[in-house]
Design goal:
Helix content: 25-40%
Largest sheet: 8 strands, mixed
CATH topology of the largest domain: Cathepsin B, Chain A
Protein name: Fruit bromelain
Strand content: 15-25%
CATH class of the largest domain: Alpha Beta
Oligomer: single chain
GO molecular function: cysteine-type peptidase activity
Organism: Citrus x changshan-huyou
Keywords: Disulfide bond, Hydrolase, Protease, Thiol protease
Distance between the termini: 59 Å
Family: Belongs to the peptidase C1 family.
Order of helices and strands: HHHEHHHHEHEHEEEEE
Number of domains: 2
Shape: globular
Strand order of the largest sheet: 1-4-7-6-5-3-8-2
Length: 291
Amino acid sequence: MNEAASISIAEKHEKWMAEHGRSYKDELEKDMRFKIFKQNLEYIDKVNNNNNSNEGINRTYKLGTNQFSDLTNAEFRASYAGNSMAITSQHSSLKYQNLTPTACWAFSAVAAVEGITQISSGNLIRLSEQQLLDCSSNGNSGCVEGKSDIAFKYIIKNQGIATEADYPYHQVQGSCGRKHATAAKISSYEVLPSGDEQALLKAVSMQPVSINIEGTGPDFKNYKGGIFNGVCGTQLDHAVTIIGFGTTEDGTKYWLIKNSWGDTWGEAGYMRIQRDEGLCGIGTQAAYPIT
């Protein structure tokens, strides 16, 4: 028996707790979380062995444990859904953070601004998500939910956005305080036609694009690597940033997205997801800033 097979699930849970700095208030909670961890691990093994009940899927991805592995799917959705960046106007290298639940819209919007700023100036400037959480209040609700186009509107109205160093991330919404020096500006933004992946491809070939997807399904939650082509709906509940695209040697087209859940999720914080299929609602809501 190999080493992996000889490790009990209880030992795997202890190892996972150490890796992710997880602790519980008492043995009762630990036992409850262990049972959830075990259920998640069994699901991961089932999918990876192609024994999932969903038929007709030639999976080109693998699942694995991550920081969410002691959460039920319902708990995960309750904490990480609701990150709407729905378009409310007809106006036409990224960083890792330990994301406070339902603040991903701010990370997605800032990542897009960082990207176009680097392209236009040649400098990668780390910008402040916290400023958007605190100050982009016209239709945005801090860590509860937010919209990328409203975030872009705020940056335009404010005549720029501060650096992360000047306005650091605190993981909770605060008050919009003193005036901070701006480090990057945008003049406008563009909303892409809904469902048009060719328009999205053209935009991504020029710069990162902020998008909304369905990102709270069990396979998305547990994604470890490969080209994601799993079961995924179009209930847009999560914001990410498309930073590139490619094609595998066997001809599979994919988008490269940067998530905001840390480098223990996916491929060091990134996901490759099948392109030209509208998977997870990709292309339904997308916008990018203009300098």
